[in-house]
Amino acid sequence: MDGDVVVSPVEVLSDLTAQQYEDAFRELSGVRGLRLVDVCGYEAGGQARYAGIWDFVHGPHPESYQWTAYAIPVADYQSVFQARMAEGYRPMRITPYSVAGQTLIAAIWETTPGPPWASRHDFNVLNLPTHLREVRRQGYRVADICFYSSLEPNPDYPGPPPAPLVRIARFSSIWVQSDGRDWDVFGPLTADEYQAEFDRQNGLGRLPVRATGFNVGDSGDQQHFVGLWEPARGLPYEAHHGIDDAGYQADSVRLGGDGWRQLCVGAYSAGYGDAATPRFNPIWELRLPDPVIAGLAAKFMNDYEVPGLSMAVAKDGQLVHAAGYGLADKDAGTPVTTSSLFRIASLTKPITSSALMNLANQGRVALQDLVFGPNGHLSDLGTPADARAANIIVRHLLEHACGGWANDSHDPMYTNPTLDQRQLISWVLANRPLDNVPGTAYAYSNFGYCVLGRIIEHVTGRTYADHVSQDLLAPCGVTDMSIAGNTLADRRPDEVVYYGLDGDDPYSMQVHRMDSHGGWVATATDVLRFLVRVDGFPSPPDVVPEDWITAMTTPSGLPGSEGYAMGWWVDARGTRWHTGYLPGTTSVLVRTHDGYCWVAVVNTGREDKANPDRDTEHGLSELMWDVHDQVDVWPAGQPL
């Protein structure tokens, strides 16, 4: 792995007291925003101890989206269960354990959406075969299962009460609606039997995703094991069972240092009371980019009806992944490659904004310059019928704060198809009044960025495309971007075919007229070459001065702007992004707060903001954040 970029994927802590666990959850989940994905309680020397795994989480989550408890008495669990359900939570992990003869439960609950689920926490181990058959019969699969030894009155005691206490093996489980994946549960098994089963499952292409151990009998000197198995994903993995604390810590150092991700702790106690010692059933996976991304891409493309996808990813300014997936042309069977050209839609807006920042740096335009009226850059396009439009300045256009002409059902860019950009602007000034005073309200405006393209032309004396190509893109190493054509016959060599959904026609628009707000055609890698040179990171050198990058990426603060700056959305962490959509095209561009940049484009699209499971832009954004979250070892980067 010499030269590879190893990403620290998770935080794993064990041997925590109750107070230490609370402190860890407060810091890792509450402050750092990580997601608790596994929690185990166990007994060591007669005392309760806890272990947990905290993983990445992307996107905004309310502070209350995750709830955990680590020492619920088993008698109280049902009332807690009902309370969490009433609050909209669903169980993600349930781990019973015993300390000083008392059975307690540790659990994780989330408000995140998911398929229908069910959970039980009090099954006798003898009921396991019946339970598994019932789960399958109802069309579900086991998502989590944990076994434990419970100290209870002997149910078979024939004499008068009180009955003597005996150890009874029980289990808890969570099951969710089946998604078609293969799965099975095997056990309880002795250590040797479990190893044999492990070898058999490995030969069948399965790996354990959850392993649990528990004491057998009153002495606790023997343990049994149960594994939940699912198909392997083609990634290297290691899984151990019944290892002691020293072995577990040694493996954690060895594997964690090389980027292996721990999927579960599987902590339990060998023995009881003062004699109890911790044991672990950990599972690790080495998440390499090619198999992880291929699997994520295939699922995304199937779920969102996507023929072809291209993506490019950079870490610390260097290319670590670029690939095409699916088909550029379904009829011809042509695959998408890294050379495939796509319409990039509104990823154009950060390009246009960056070009204007450089012109502002050169003193050729100012953000406070008037746009229309006798003193404006575009005074020759007519006097606005709405006098307020004469007060629009360049900054207003960059921030979508010009006061009107929004991207809605009346978007000017989709009207008057016979007019060129300048003619269209004159028509809008004469016929379309503003909705608000300029500078007072945010309303996303394609037309506003069309106007910015004409300002660039006025200032430079060149076409928008020529100026941006020569003065912005060429210094980034980009020489093959161009403005799109409108029809199928206008396709460039290597350009994909676009496919509409829900009756949309990708070839019915004046895309060429959209030049400065949504008109570029490019490879994902070329857009990435631009992105890493305006990202504000040390390497490679940026083509826009630092002060102007700061200005360009400082949110306007206007009501409803949701962090929009000048051509970029920006969140509180410093992550910047833009998305794009046209019939037949969906795109996303992201510069993260932790050193990543990526670009992804597909040759179809559907807008359905009310239903994220149908909205292609949402799905593409989630895909790329999943890539960010799930790949742990990237190859050595290449200069862009």
From TrEMBL:
<dbReference type="InterPro" id="IPR012338">
    <property type="entry name" value="Beta-lactam/transpept-like"/>
</dbReference>
<dbReference type="InterPro" id="IPR001466">
    <property type="entry name" value="Beta-lactam-related"/>
</dbReference>
<dbReference type="InterPro" id="IPR050491">
    <property type="entry name" value="AmpC-like"/>
</dbReference>
<protein>
    <submittedName>
        <fullName>Serine hydrolase</fullName>
    </submittedName>
</protein>
<dbReference type="InterPro" id="IPR049511">
    <property type="entry name" value="PGH-like_rpt"/>
</dbReference>
<dbReference type="Pfam" id="PF17660">
    <property type="entry name" value="BTRD1"/>
</dbReference>
<keyword id="KW-0378">Hydrolase</keyword>
<dbReference type="Pfam" id="PF00144">
    <property type="entry name" value="Beta-lactamase"/>
</dbReference>
<feature type="domain" description="Beta-lactamase-related">
    <location>
        <begin position="295"/>
        <end position="615"/>
    </location>
</feature>
<dbReference type="GO" id="GO:0016787">
    <property type="term" value="F:hydrolase activity"/>
</dbReference>
